[in-house]
Design goal:
With 309 residues, this protein is mostly helical. It has one domain. Helices cover 72% and strands 3% of the residues. The protein is built from twelve helices and two strands. The protein has a two-stranded antiparallel sheet. A hairpin with an 8-residue loop joins strand 1 and strand 2. It starts with a helix and ends in a 14-residue tail after the last helix.
Length: 309
Amino acid sequence: MGFFLETLIGGLMAGMLYSLVALGFVLIYKASGVFNFAQGAMVLFAALAMARFAEWLPVYAGITSPVVANLIAFVLAAAVMFIVAWVIEYLVLRHLVNQEGTTLLMATLGITYFLDGVGQTIFGSDIYKIDIGMPKEPLMAFQNAFEGGLMINQEDMVAAVIAAVLVAGLSLFFQKTTTGRALRAVADDHQAAQSIGIPLNRIWVIVWCVAGIVALVAGMIWGSKLGVQFSLSTVALRALPVVILGGLTSVPGAIIGGLIIGVGEKLSEVFLGPYVGGGIEIWFAYVLALGFLLIRPQGLFGEKIIDRV
């Protein structure tokens, strides 16, 4: 029982991190109706900015406190992501208002390669470290309830708490604020939203800024775990089954989908892997997502698309 709970808790924590990356996809899709392939590049770009600023500040600004350096680096990286959001809207999205979804999709592919190239040109292409003080040692808990206790990865636990707080905040933002409701209106129909006075360009800047902050937090956490390197951009691929499962238009769906994927990967690898030679964790999420595409294409919480003819 103890081993099962360890695996379950590990899956839930991994699922929250998947949800965090998936949120970026959901935010952009809700505002523009297009799947943002640039989300992985945004995670890499934000993580590179955070890592390099934290490295440069002690050298050029004489900041010796790691906590202060990380805090200032986070603020500077967030400012960089705001600038990136504004540039993307001004140079790309503003000229593609009311275009077909395929056109916007191809635009995000272009943004992906642009961010990958520019990020490595400005910040470098080596492997960098982000040290934000998250504990690395495992924690032994519930030793009285289970023989030997439960081993919990403290780094994953802290990361899951950070992700949960951010997800909860974004859910409230979409449901309770005027800007959040405007975002949902823009997602439903660009032309109708413009006709009632919603400034489409400003909404797109806001949502790309929010998606940039989500990418920064995701990059900070994944960078702390894996190091900041080019392969970090592929983390977004792990979130694709999450958005398919939860629904492209649902923030709660990204959460539930991430938890299901995280738990499913861990349990299947541990309990089914020995019988099939292992490797289930690599493809489990995609097979599950494929099943949902065949049965319920809009996902668990996605909105059904009804075309009237």
